[in-house]
Amino acid sequence: MDVADGEMKIEKEYDQGFRVEHEGDDHQGRLPESSKIKKKKQKMATRCDQQYTTPLPPPDLPIKFKKQIRALGGSDIALVIQKCLFKIDVSSGHNRLSIPFNQIQQTFLTPQETEFLNSGDNKKKCSKMEVMLIEPSLRRGTISLRKWEMKKASGSATSMYVLVGQWNSVAWRNTLREDETVQLWSFRINSKLCLALVKRKAKSNGYFIEF
């Protein structure tokens, strides 16, 4: 309706990410829903980057894990990743722990293992490796390691490895929670890849302790 009918026109426009709704000369700026979500994600990422970055010197694997690995005849222990758990990492609906390529501390796969995980069509036929996992509780089990290509809205893709299959059970048994810090370590038994998951707690001096 026009002004002559006594109705005021409501105009909506976007300016630098802010939605401005104004009625006559009354202006009120509000963030669009998409910007709110983006801002929340950026805040979460910043929090984790500040609290859970790998300290210097690099953390060592706890003694109790070393003892169990040695008792199993394991060797070649290496830190794969230290990360802050996000909500999606402990969501039962997703059942997976992500291992982003850009957060991996060092190569933990052989060329043959890398080639194997690169095979498949990234759908139901996606290649997977069954590996031993020592949980934070020291319980031993088997979990699946896969490579995923996560498509973005822009059309590009982000590559990552994921632990799937029994991940929900691992998270439940070890009471893994959002914002907690975990470390994933690799080791070898007779050249076969194995993994160990460690829970860490940040101290005020930047170092981490096991808990």
Essential attributes:
eight-stranded mixed sheet, 211 residues, three-stranded antiparallel sheet, single chain
Overview of this protein structure:
By secondary structure, the chain is α+β, with helices and mostly antiparallel strands. The protein has 4 helices and 11 strands. A hairpin with a 5-residue loop joins strand 10 (192-202) and strand 11. The chain is globular, with a radius of gyration of 23 Å.
In summary, what is this structure?
The protein is α+β, with helices and mostly antiparallel strands and 211 residues long.
What secondary-structure arrangement, pairings included, does this model have?
Blueprint: E1 10-15, E2 18-23, E3 26-30, H1 33-52, H2 63-71, E4 75-84, E5 97-100, H3 111-118, E6 128-134, E7 140-151, E8 157-164, H4 167-173, E9 181-189, E10 192-202, E11 208-210
Parallel strand pairs: 6-10
Antiparallel strand pairs: 1-2, 2-3, 4-9, 5-8, 6-7, 7-8, 9-10, 10-11
